[in-house]
Amino acid sequence: MTGPKIAVLGIGNPLRRDDGLGIRVVQIMQSNPCYVGVDIIDGGTAPDLFSLLDESVGKLVIVDVLRGKGEPGSIYRLEITEENISAQPSASLHGLGVLDSLQLMVRLGMRPPEVIIIGVEPYDVANGLGLSPQMESLVPQVISEVEKELGGPH
Fold first, then answer.
1. What is the pTM of this model?
2. For 60-105, how does the pLDDT look when each residue is reduced to its tens digit (9 = 90+)?
3. Taking the domain 5-149, which CATH number applies?
4. Structural domain spans, the chain
5. Is residue 88 packed enough to be buried (19+ CB in 10 Å), middle (13-18) or exposed (0-12)?
């Protein structure tokens, strides 16, 4: 892999059904040795981007569930830039922490130059373990969307 380092950050709460999507995606990716040169990070429910990322990261791909007012299962790709970061509404169940961290990184000149959020409209975020069957069936497609951001399968 050439170019800037890429990090994939999964966010979520696996105790709230589909909210665990980001964690599920990074667990699968972490178990696959083909992602050489990519930092794959389980960010939990409130990731501290300052402690999880280093300055060598040139692209950050965040995987999470989003409330985008679409149908459950809708997959979104959001590009967060310096120009739009302060205008981004909180769509993620964890959005305030992540967006606040990104805003602070921008102010300090530390934000990765490219930040992409791959998000999926949840079916079920009630208390419980495991993704809903509908969300579980989308996991390969979400991984494929992440791989597009990595420049294809590794």
1. 0.85
2. 999 999 988 899 999 999 988 766 665 544 444 444 467 777 777 7
3. 3.40.50.1450
4. 5-149
5. middle
